[in-house]
Amino acid sequence: MTQTKFESRVLSVLEDKIQLIETEKGAIYLVGPIKIPVNLYGETVNFQWYCWLNCEEVTEDFERIIEKLSSANLAELQQSSVLTYGDFSYSDDAIMRMHSICHTGDIFGSKRCDCGFQLKQSMKNIVDHGTGALFYLANHEGRGIGLFSKAMAYILQENEYDTVEANEALGFVDDSRDYSDAINVLKALRSKPVILMTNNPKKLEALKNAGLPVSGRESLWGDRSTFNEKYLETKVNRSGHMVEDETCSSND
Per the residue annotation, which of 106, 162, 175, 181 is the catalytic one? Predict the structure, then answer.
């Protein structure tokens, strides 16, 4: 009896924070918003955090979904999330970024890429802008090849391969990232136009092909160094990333 009451109380707390988003392959379960105070360049900024889970089962019986989690071993899988700031859903003007996870750059601060800089700078830009969202896409490591494969690609890069050549030598395409989940979540959170922070034309194309209104684009430059110079040049010269200022060599 005690267990049943406990489960009922848990469900009553959680059910208003879970949203069902139906997809072609099943469903996305979006949980949030959750208050997240973030240390951003020495200041505490309050964001709202959401996380989502892909599932083949489509149901509004959220108790059924919650019951499955303890045996689903989610810690060995990757889940993506989104940070929002301000009135992201209803503000007329919002800025956003779709940021691909970079274990080495985002966590360790590696200078082999500019990802760590872009993560923090995009958050700062969102706060300065007044409202926006940062989508953190966990299944995008190494442009979609995964962390272990990325480690092998790094070894090849230390032996004269560029980023594209290394991925292709391991049997991957240059960029296999898919933005459909992020787009489904974006549609659930906001219907008004967004300004996209990116230098990658594929991200703009993904939003536009999905019928999402994009009112503009902002570049995200910085953190060029001797450690990532070739990496950045490869993005421009081989992957088609947009350059607007020759003094800026950072691409996402």
Answer: 175
Q: Is 223 a catalytic residue?
A: no
Backbone angles phi, psi at 140, to 5 degrees: -110, 10
**pTM for the structure as a whole:** 0.86
Domain 2-140+177-237: CATH superfamily is GTP cyclohydrolase II (3.40.50.10990)
Instruction: Say which of 177, 190, 217, 224 is annotated catalytic.
Output: 177
Tens of pLDDT along the chain (252 residues)?
A: 345 544 677 888 888 899 999 999 899 999 999 999 999 999 999 999 999 999 999 999 888 888 888 777 787 788 999 999 999 999 999 999 999 999 999 999 989 888 999 999 999 999 999 999 999 999 899 989 999 999 999 999 999 898 899 989 999 988 889 999 999 999 999 999 999 999 888 899 999 999 999 999 999 877 788 887 776 787 777 665 667 654 444 334
Whether 217 is catalytic:
no
Token representation of residue 94: 């919002």
